[in-house]
Structures are given as C-alpha cells and as structure tokens.
Amino acid sequence: MYIELVTPENVIYEGQADIVTLPGTEGSFQVMNNHAPIISSLKNGELVIKIGKEERFFEVSGGVVEVLDNKLVVLTEQAEET
Fold first, then answer.
1. Is the dihedral angle over the CA atoms 65, 71, 77, 79 positive or is it negative?
2. Per-residue pLDDT of the chain (82 residues; tens, 9 = 90+)
3. Which end of the chain is more exposed for a tag (fewer CB within 10 A), N or C?
C-alpha cells in the first residue's frame, strides 16, 4: 500500500509500506494491504512503517488517518523520524 505522512509544513514520508502501526486514540492498531476503508483519530505516539524487514519509526503529535483503496494518509501537526 502507499502511505503519506504529512504535516502543515511538508511531507515527512511518502512511499510503499507493508504494515503501518498507528497510535490510535482508542489504542494502537495496524493497517495492511487491502484494509477496509477507515478514518480514525490519532494520539501522540509512535508510528511504525514496515517495508519488508525494514522498519522506520516516527514520533507523531496526534492527528487523523484515512485509509482508502490501499492508500493511507496521515495528517499530523508534527512528525519526526526517530
């Protein structure tokens, strides 16, 4: 699936991902390829993008995520790769 991690200032990450783990306000959850459409709120926490065996970690300051047609868009105030 394709993911975009976006702040008001710029695009922090865009590219392919196999699994994305997100800090949902009701608890952490994962999104994989062919996931059902969803819109969810996020709390401050760690977002993990897994591509094959590689994992990339980002600290996000809340926000929202939309998943639709194998595209995941995360909108957050701040994000930094850790």
1. positive
2. 999 999 999 999 999 999 999 999 999 999 999 999 999 999 999 999 999 999 999 999 999 999 999 999 999 999 999 9
3. C
State the pTM of this model: 0.91
- Helix-strand-coil split of the chain, %, nearest 5: 0, 75, 25
3-state secondary structure of 52: coil
Tell me which DSSP letter residue 53 carries.
T
Q: Which fold has domain 2-81?
A: ATP Synthase; domain 1 (2.60.15)
